[in-house]
């Protein structure tokens, strides 16, 4: 059996795996390569309606991923569709198994057969834990796994996610961290605190008028003669 993916231009590219697969009949005996579609108006309308519903479900999933820091719980309308969407993204999934299960769900919805769906919901808390996981520091090749985020009090990227502490202002501590200890360091390194070896040359250079790049004049005429 051969399966061909029917391209749907009005849907998103991410919906390619949800495009309806029509079964083709190939005449192996005569070697004919003609493919016959199974057209039906009612089936086409049902398929379009189901595609729209699944697209809305995926939009909800994308919205949950964007707003993942909101620890609310968004229930799915169909437990089977949720599992089918998750399994459809997994690598190595068999296409024919996915198509048969998808057709089963569509036929059950069309016939109005109630399905046993357990009361479950999609927790967003697991997404928050997944996003807040970090590995090491923000350097050493870990470009998308930062350990520090912006501090809500000082605004610097010094808030450590795992330790929940800002290294710049010590948030969430009530007392803001300051660095007044540097005043002593400045006082130690100011002018006049070092050896100042050049000061012993100042009186000698004062006698010659602080000349630079010139030769000394002879002190008396006898020495010059």
Automatic annotation (TrEMBL):
GO cellular component: ribonucleoprotein complex; ribosome
Alphabetically ordered keywords of this record: Metal-binding, Ribonucleoprotein, Ribosomal protein, RNA-binding, rRNA-binding, Zinc, Zinc-finger
An MF annotation (GO) of this entry: structural constituent of ribosome
Entry keyword Hydrolase: no
Annotated InterPro entries: Ribosomal_eL37, Ribosomal_eL37/eL43, Ribosomal_eL37_CS, Ribosomal_zn-bd
Classification via Gene3D superfamilies: 2.20.25.30
Metal-binding in keyword set: yes
GO terms for biological process, alphabetical: translation
Family of this protein: Belongs to the eukaryotic ribosomal protein eL37 family.
Name of the protein in question: (rape) hypothetical protein
Originating species: Brassica napus (Rape)
